[in-house]
């Protein structure tokens, strides 16, 4: 047996994976976006399919990634579209992996026509909070709309600051979100965004904390799926 053989441990399982960055429109030609490449979520979706799962990838905007083979891909743009698609496909799923970079806010109004430069100084952009999709999934499971056995995975890109370390912020976020696993990427100094490798930790709701050593996103994906597989009943 080859040591790099992919286990077929997810046969019969249904996964929903979100990936990429949402775009929140301001007018017909402009949006608020983020730098997510989608690479981590795509790698997880691809590997879950290789391990035998039936996978729906809810894909927002990426750095031009091609749809992975043997994966159902649902393309979306805004956070609200992503929320609707994830919730639709989460019903009946064994695991939902929220690797998308969802915009926290959207412009409160979307101009029907292109905003003109005009003579005056520009207006400020009023923002409205988007729904928290991950927290909504946890709530839906609590309410019985999702099966109690559904494994819910969140991602967090964190930086440390004067008030706390990456891990302290991540543990607080895991508790706040109520998900089962939180994949933590340490960002800053050019890490995690727009690169092929990243590093961090895998935090579980039971308090366990596994370092994800520096490596490829493919390796990170296999670690994440190993942890999810361990929680599937
Ligand atoms: N997420 C989500 N819906 C949102 C925002 C985030 O589902 N509106 C998900 C992301 O996909 C990710 C997790 O929540 O899996 C953590 O995202 P993050 O931005 O780190 O968390 P926030 O609660 O938005 O906190 P912060 O203030 O640090 O941005
Ligand atoms: Ca956020």
From TrEMBL:
Keywords: Decarboxylase, Flavoprotein, FMN, Ligase, Lyase, Magnesium, Metal-binding, Multifunctional enzyme. Residues 10-229 form the DNA/pantothenate metabolism flavoprotein C-terminal domain. Residues 15-233 are annotated as: Phosphopantothenate--cysteine ligase. Coiled coil: none annotated. Its EC number is 4.1.1.36, 6.3.2.5. The keyword Hydrolase does not apply. Binds 1 FMN per subunit. Pathway: Cofactor biosynthesis; coenzyme A biosynthesis; CoA from (R)-pantothenate: step 3/5; Cofactor biosynthesis; coenzyme A biosynthesis; CoA from (R)-pantothenate: step 2/5. Its cofactor is FMN; Mg(2+). CTP binds at residues 104, 114, 155, 173, 177. It catalyses: (R)-4'-phosphopantothenate + L-cysteine + CTP = N-[(R)-4-phosphopantothenoyl]-L-cysteine + CMP + diphosphate + H(+); N-[(R)-4-phosphopantothenoyl]-L-cysteine + H(+) = (R)-4'-phosphopantetheine + CO2. The keyword Cell division does not apply. GO terms for molecular function: phosphopantothenate--cysteine ligase activity; phosphopantothenoylcysteine decarboxylase activity. Catalyzes two steps in the biosynthesis of coenzyme A. In the first step cysteine is conjugated to 4'-phosphopantothenate to form 4-phosphopantothenoylcysteine, in the latter compound is decarboxylated to form 4'-phosphopantotheine. Catalyzes two sequential steps in the biosynthesis of coenzyme A. In the first step cysteine is conjugated to 4'-phosphopantothenate to form 4-phosphopantothenoylcysteine. In the second step the latter compound is decarboxylated to form 4'-phosphopantotheine. In the C-terminal section; belongs to the PPC synthetase family. This is Coenzyme A biosynthesis bifunctional protein CoaBC. It comes from Skermania pinensis. The gene is coaBC. The chain holds residues 175 to 407 of 407 of the full protein.
């Amino acid at each position: 047996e080859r040591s790099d053989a992919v286990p077929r441990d997810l046969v019969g399982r249904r996964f929903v994976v979100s990936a990429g960055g949402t775009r929140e429109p301001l007018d017909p030609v402009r949006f608020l976006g983020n730098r997510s490449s989608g690479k981590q979520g795509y790698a997880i979706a691809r590997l879950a399919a290789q391990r035998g799962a039936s996978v729906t990838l809810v894909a927002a905007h990426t750095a031009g990634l091609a749809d992975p083979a043997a994966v159902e891909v649902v393309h979306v743009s805004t956070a609200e579209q992503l929320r609707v698609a994830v919730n639709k496909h989460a019903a009946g799923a064994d695991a939902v992996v929220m690797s998308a970079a969802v915009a926290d806010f959207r412009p409160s109004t979307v101009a029907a026509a292109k905003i003109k430069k005009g003579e005056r100084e520009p207006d400020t952009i009023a923002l409205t909070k988007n729904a928290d999709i991950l927290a909504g999934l946890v709530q839906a499971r609590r309410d019985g709309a999702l099966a109690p056995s559904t494994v819910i995975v969140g991602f967090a890109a964190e930086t440390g600051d004067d008030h706390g370390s990456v891990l302290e912020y991540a543990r607080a976020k895991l508790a706040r979100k109520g998900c089962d696993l939180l994949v933590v990427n340490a960002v800053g100094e050019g890490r995690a965004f727009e690169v092929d490798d990243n590093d961090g930790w895998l935090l579980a709701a039971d308090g366990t904390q596994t370092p994800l050593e520096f490596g490829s996103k493919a390796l990170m994906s296999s670690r994440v799926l190993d942890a999810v597989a361990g929680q599937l009943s």
